[in-house]
Amino acid sequence: MNAKLNSLVFTSLSHFSVDGNFLLFPVLLTYYAGIKGLSVFVIGLMPVLYNLISGFLSVYVGSYADRVDRDSVILMFGLILNGLAAFVFSLAFLMNGAAYEFMIIGSVLLGVGQSIYHPIGATILSHTFGPRESASYMGINGSFGSLGRSAFPPMVVFIAGFVGIVLGLQVIVIYFIVAAVLILLGLRFFKRKDYQYSLPVKQKISTKDDSLEGKVPFFLIMLVLLVFLRSMFISVTTTWVPTYLDAIFNSKHLMATILGIAFLAPVLGQPFFGYLTSKFGGKFTISLTSVGLVVFFVLFLYFSRGFAIILISYTFFAFFAYTGFPVLMGYVSQIVPKEHSTRANALVWGLGNTIGGSVGLLLFDGLRLFASMFLSFTVLLVFAIVSVFLLIYLPSREKLEKS
To answer: Assuming Cys at both sites, which of 160, 172, 255, 367 could form a disulfide with 86, CB separation 3.0 to 4.6 Å?
Structure first.
């Protein structure tokens, strides 16, 4: 395979694995809740922990990766940590007396493992395909992340139904070891120094004040803030909708079926929105997805009655919500010079997407002490609505072309 195809195939395998494993704990939460003596409030703090670790570390991972130029090794390390997290999570079922300790250790491992892929994967694709084409290919790559989110929940639930949750998690561990080796071998060709793309003048905003050497440009700050608020809401839905559905249907199989089908929608949505980002610019696509996810979650939460309507509304919500990789990373590749791309990716994805998610999860967990899950979802939805109004601060395609 040539370099471009190699980069797409093996970053897609990594994306499939990492995003799939991100939904592991939300599914496990429904199993942990059944262990006597464990507090759902304390268990709910674990996603806060691994999101915080992932968000803060991703900024440093991005800076480190920019310096050392060893992306395949770093990606392999991240996948191994994801596998180790699944193994440690399984120990909580075997030794209930130390369940919290194993959850904390597993969350630390998961947070470190999850911090690695997105800034590095985006950088590999932006280097090999160039800034003009990378958003479209990030969409294809992102569709495999969505496929992972679609595959892992039903896979874990149905394997657990046959061999138990502990052995089911060992299957995940073995998978990650194999995937890590494949990715190391498949991406060992990639060295950043071999790619000398520079952004076209019309796609840059490159004044002295906008340099990433020093203060962060205003438009990037507003993008991070927008993503932060939006992610406060999206991460809550990712983590707690499985529990919400399990309570509605009293069936883990129906819950897993809805998640599996709904997360197939972004498999098509990510390349579609990646294409729109390349065609019409990042602001247009961020606006479209931000409004769409709000509208369809309102339908899901307030107007859904019965399995079919819940499935349809949540599927359309997933179609708009889980498109961040090609839309956000593609937008960054259009407006930030490539020598700062991983740092900018890490700010948007790590600080905005992941830390924002942690804050949202912490707020939701606190609300659940005295409010219903329905009301807690409503409060977090307000933050997604506020994020829509911040779109006015993002530079439009026309402004980029004039700069």
So the answer is: 172
Classified as helix, coil or strand, 131 is: helix
User: What confidence tens digit (pLDDT) does each residue in 313-344 have?
Assistant: 999 999 999 876 667 777 776 666 665 666 77
Tokens of 323: 């498109």
DSSP for 270-311, please give it: HHHHHHHHHHH-HHHHHHHHHHHHHHHHHHHHHS--SHHHHH
Assigned token pair, 328: 């956000």
- Find where tokens 């890590």 sit: 180
Residue 376 near residue 368 (C-beta atoms within 8 A)? yes
What is d(CA 239, CA 22) in angstroms, rounded to the nearest whole number? Answer: 9
Residues 6+ apart with CB under 8 A from 91: 98, 102
* For residue 209, pLDDT beyond 50: no
71 pLDDT tier (thresholds 50, 70, 90)? confident
pLDDT, one tens digit per residue, over 289-314 is: 999 999 999 999 998 778 999 999 99
Q: Is pLDDT of 398 > 70?
A: no
Give 396's pLDDT tier (boundaries 50, 70, 90): low
Other CB atoms within a 10 A radius of the CB of residue 402 amount to 9
Angle between helices 71-94 and 165-186 (to 10 degrees): 170
Q: Which residues contact 40 (CB under 8 A, 6 or more apart)?
A: 33, 368
Stated as kind and residue range, the H or E segment containing 164 is: none
pLDDT of residue 84: 96
The CA distance from 288 to 299, in Å, is 17
User: Can you tell me the distance from the alpha carbon of 380 to that of 270, in angstroms, rounded to the nearest whole number?
Assistant: 24
Asked whether the CA dihedral 92, 95, 99, 103 is positive or negative, the reply is negative
Taking only Cα atoms into account, the Rg of the chain, rounded to an integer number of angstroms, comes to 20
DSSP codes joined into one string, 171-238: HHHHHHHHHHHHHHHHTTT--GGG------GGG----GGG-SSSSPPHHHHHHHHHHHHHHHHHHHHH
Q: Which residue has the tokens 């708009």?
A: 320
**CA atoms in the 13 A half-sphere facing the CB of 376:** 22
For residues 352 and 291, give the distance between their C-alpha atoms in angstroms, rounded to a whole number.
18
204 has a pLDDT exceeding 50: no
User: What three-state secondary structure class fits 374?
Assistant: helix
First and final C-alpha spacing in the chain? 38
